[in-house]
Amino acid sequence: MTRIEPFTESNEFLGQPEKLREQARQDGYLFFRKLIDKDSIQNLRHDFLEICHRHGWAKGGESLMEGIRIGGPFMEGDEGYWPVLDEFQSLESFHGFAHHPAILDMCDKLFEEKTLVHPRNIGRIMFPENTKYTTPAHQDFIHIRGTEDTYTAWIPLGDCPKYLGGLSVLSGSHRSGVYPVQPALGAGGLGIDTDPLEANGMHWVSGDYDIGDALFFHSHAVHKALPNQTPDRIRLSVDYRYQGGSQPVTEGSLLPHFNRMPWEQIYEGWESKDYQYYWKSFDLNLV
Question: Strands 285-286 and 248-249, how do they pair?
């Protein structure tokens, strides 16, 4: 079995921006305990699970928030997955959560300028008894492009012990550029052979996530999901991406995930315009 060491926690550096940036340069990731308030997480979790329940994926009623699977498993790309994904994409709470003040405060310090939040937000549902489709080791840069200094935030929507399938990062792997890829099962469809990297002394880091914890990692950092080994629990998480506002960005990062609906349709029924087309206020460096 691959040895997994604990995350290095970075909460102490939130008031020391230079040390925060140094930590990110060294490890390729930043991990924070309880960065985000519990209520914000619970509210979004409730919205996600209500959708899962309506589509017959999760129990409702008093058991709703436990995320107990009753349907599936489904994977991104399956015909039965799209109706749920489309509803996720239309949630105002889902897109608004990407702009949480605690996240933006940290990112402004990391980038030393105003943060651009990519609107291409991703909601993840990982089913139990589906371990062969666990997200493989990969880098995000080949999917994002633009500036290499884009960071992905991976935030579980609730407590996420290792056996539920949290995320793991290969510490220091961001320092050697883009690695060769090969076809793989799981989200993204591309994987990396990490045996040579581990043989060169790189090691995996992960841990038990508590509600409110957040992981940020560089676009070159190799990372993977751990398998959901529970008998009946759905793992819910979100992927958000951030970069310095002056840095290069691709048009694809400004489109909805999978681009199945235009923004006009996604925004129908939203109560606020705060998070609609906000990126147009930036002098974007489109590449």
Answer: parallel
Counts for the chain of helices (H) and strands (E), in that order: 8, 14
Q: Which of 66, 77, 151 is nearest to 109 (CA)?
A: 151
CATH topology of domain 29-271: Jelly Rolls (2.60.120)
The pTM for the full model equals 0.96
Instruction: Report the candidate in 160, 255, 138, 144 with the shortest Cα–Cα distance to residue 206.
Output: 160
At 81-139, the pLDDT tens digits run 999 999 999 999 999 999 999 999 999 999 999 999 999 999 999 999 776 767 889 99
237: which 2 tokens? 């998480």
Buried b (16+ CB within 10 A) or exposed e, 206-229: bbebebbbbbbbbbbbbbbbbbbe
Q: Where are the domains of the chain?
A: 29-271
Q: Mind giving me the DSSP string for 68-95?
A: BB-S----TTSGGGHHHHHHHHT-HHHH
